[in-house]
Amino acid sequence: MIFILGFITYYFFDLFCFKTIQHFIKELFHSKAIAHVLAYSITLIPIIITLKVLLPKNKTINLLSLNQSAAKGFTLAFMGTLPMLIGYIIHFKLTNTISFESLFINTISSAFFEELIFRVFLIGTLYRFTRLGFLSSIMFGSILFAQVHLYQSQNTIELLEIFAITFLGSVFFTWAYFEQDFNIWAAIFLHFFMNLYWEIFSVSENVSGNLYGNLYKFLSIILVIGIVTYHKIKKKTPFQIT
């Protein structure tokens, strides 16, 4: 009940206040990037309070899974997404005009805050601290994650593709987060690199993509799964998800 109340508080706070806060900060600092980060940080407060109420003895950095190794998360993500980078270099041209602020928002800021909200709070809290299993835990958070990306198109077929791709993407990021000993940096950097390569190369106007765009993304996912599985078997570490 505390979790549900905390989520509802966050949801409506974000729904009604995020854009207002973002607009106010943008007018104050004349920066979309700063406004995006600070608006996310402020609307994150109900989530942090909820986690502190549920687990009062834990430090905030531990509650958000940020106490794990960022270097490990970075290494896995960079190596795992190399097929995307190499494939996109071969098949796509660099984007002609790249706005630094838009690039920052769509890569660093979005990856960081979306992983904390969806993977750590909505999915991770349910999986780690309730009796819900993996499939039950991922459903609501992944559906909501997919839903917030539907602004990218008005075409029905594309909307279905976007929903399916982002839903499965949420499942994949969650799996990587769980199997890396709840190291959220793995999911953050995977999210970051995948968004980065999609942004700096002229792949597609939205996440539904095209043949080569999705092919190299799929190969990256397979490589990440292979790397994680290899290391867990080598170290004889049990899998979280069986």
TrEMBL record:
Residues 103-196 form the CAAX prenyl protease 2/Lysostaphin resistance protein A-like domain. It comes from Chryseobacterium jejuense. One of its GO terms (molecular function) is endopeptidase activity. GO terms for biological process: CAAX-box protein maturation; proteolysis. Keywords: Hydrolase, Membrane, Protease, Transmembrane, Transmembrane helix. The lineage of its organism: Bacteria, Pseudomonadati, Bacteroidota, Flavobacteriia, Flavobacteriales. The keyword Coiled coil does not apply. The keyword Nucleus does not apply. It comes from the Bacteria. InterPro entries: Rce1/LyrA-like_dom. Signal peptide: none annotated. This is CAAX amino terminal protease self- immunity. The chain crosses the membrane at residues 33-54, 74-91, 103-122, 134-151, 157-177, 184-203, 215-233.
